[in-house]
Automatic annotation (TrEMBL):
Protein origin, superkingdom: Bacteria
Cofactors: pyridoxal 5'-phosphate
The protein's name: Aromatic amino acid aminotransferase
Organism: Pseudonocardia autotrophica (Amycolata autotrophica)
Family from the record: Belongs to the class-II pyridoxal-phosphate-dependent aminotransferase family.
SUPFAM superfamilies, per the entry: PLP-dependent transferases
Molecular function, one GO term: aromatic-amino-acid transaminase activity
Enzyme class: transferase
Annotated Aminotransferase class I/classII large domain residues: 24-343
Gene name as annotated: pat
Catalytic activity, EC: 2.6.1.57
PANTHER family in the record: HISTIDINOL-PHOSPHATE AMINOTRANSFERASE, HISTIDINOL-PHOSPHATE AMINOTRANSFERASE 2
HAMAP family according to UniProt: HisC_aminotrans_2, Phe_aminotrans_2
């Protein structure tokens, strides 16, 4: 018998958004426009040196992030996308069966996968009726076996952001022996003034680690760069379990250029936010339930009709992301692509 872990047979598969040639893809929360021109130039330059290994320590990018967040570089860990950092967090905190990772459900589909890969136990707490984290119930669900909690704000796929006051109450309640990872993959789209921001809480809560990514607002999902901000103890552990050379030279160069031009690049988020609010309002006007979204997508809690809605959209060449028996996540894109979505959605008989 090949010595493969039998539990991998029960590992849920990560379901990527479908790419259909000629269709509008609103399934993966990507930005439709290509990366910014200076990013493309930096990538091309770095590609010419691809015969060499990348910088193992990711030094220049780490220093730039340190300056941007006003943190020492030792408090930053760069990873091959923040999904990989999620997996590293499990590896850095959990020793095996019995150790628990807690998160809300439904939330980011990578959390159960990386937890199981780390041979830790999945513990979940349901969202509230308005599709938000129930942080008081999550605090109550922490046990002496809980090592790590993922809090996704804004929550993928449902949209709402966690509020600062409830998050601080949660951090205080769980105490210093549980590592809390605040996954801010969509932070650049947040407009709710009450929403939590992780960086200002880092100095007071050494058990907090904040995850960010270049995949969404920076339009670099294909390059694979994410990072963690946290205590030096946590980020040092993350670096220890990072697969060597996993942040490519092309990715490092692209991310450095993106930071240099972040003001221009992030200006595009305002358009997405305006479109998000327009799309949500139009869908509500047509009878859909749409929870408050603080990200670049909206959630349609269609329950058993989720797959039917996705198939209806696909027939009209609009690809959305169904979560079977639960709901459909639709990425907010350009006005033209959003209009196409609204046309097919309003033709769907609720
Ligand atoms: C998209 C996303 C990420 C980013 O993943 P990368 O690996 O950086 O591309 C992380 N967390 C959540 C919740 C996401 O939706």
């Amino acid at each position: 018998m090949t010595p493969i872990r039998p539990d991998l047979d029960t590992l849920p598969a990560y379901v990527p958004g479908r790419t259909v040639p000629g269709a509008i893809k609103l399934a993966s929360n990507e930005v439709t426009e290509p990366p910014a021109p200076p990013v493309l130039e930096a990538i091309a330059r770095a590609a010419a040196g691809a015969n060499r290994y990348p910088d193992l320590g990711v030094v220049e990018l780490t220093d730039r992030l340190a300056a941007a967040y006003d943190l020492g570089p030792e408090r930053i860990a760069v990873g091959c996308g923040s999904v990989t950092i999620c997996q590293q967090l499990v590896q850095a905190t959990c020793l095996g069966p019995g150790d628990e990772v807690l998160f809300a459900w439904r939330s980011f589909e990578a959390y159960p996968i990386v937890t199981q890969i780390g041979a830790a136990a999945v513990r979940t707490v349901g969202l509230t009726a308005d599709f938000r984290h129930d942080l008081d119930a999550m605090a109550a669900a922490v046990t002496e076996r809980t090592r790590l909690v993922f809090v996704c704000s804004p929550n993928n796929p449902t949209g709402p952001a966690v509020h600062r006051d409830e998050f601080v109450r949660f951090l205080t309640a769980v105490g210093p022996d549980v590592l809390v990872a605040l996954d801010e993959a969509y932070a650049e789209y947040v407009t709710d003034p009450d929403a939590v921001s992780g960086r200002p809480l880092l100095d007071e809560y050494p058990n907090l680690v904040v995850l960010r990514t270049f995949s969404k607002a920076y339009r670099m999902a294909g390059l694979r760069v994410g990072y963690a901000l946290g205590s030096a103890e946590v980020t040092t552990a993350l670096r220890k379990v990072c697969p060597p050379f996993s942040i490519s030279a092309v990715a490092q160069a692209g991310a450095i250029a993106a930071l240099e031009h972040s003001a221009e690049i992030l200006a595009g988020c305002a358009d997405v936010v305006r479109e998000r609010d327009r799309v949500a309002a139009a869908l509500r006007d047509n009878g859909f339930v749409v929870p408050d979204s603080q990200a670049n997508f909206v959630w349609l809690p269609l329950g058993e009709r989720a797959a039917e809605f996705a198939a209806h959209c696909a027939e009209q060449k609009v690809i959305v992301r169904p979560f079977v028996s639960d709901g459909v996540r639709v990425t907010v894109s350009t006005p033209q692509e959003n209009d196409a979505l609204l046309d097919v959605a309003t033709a769907f008989a609720l």
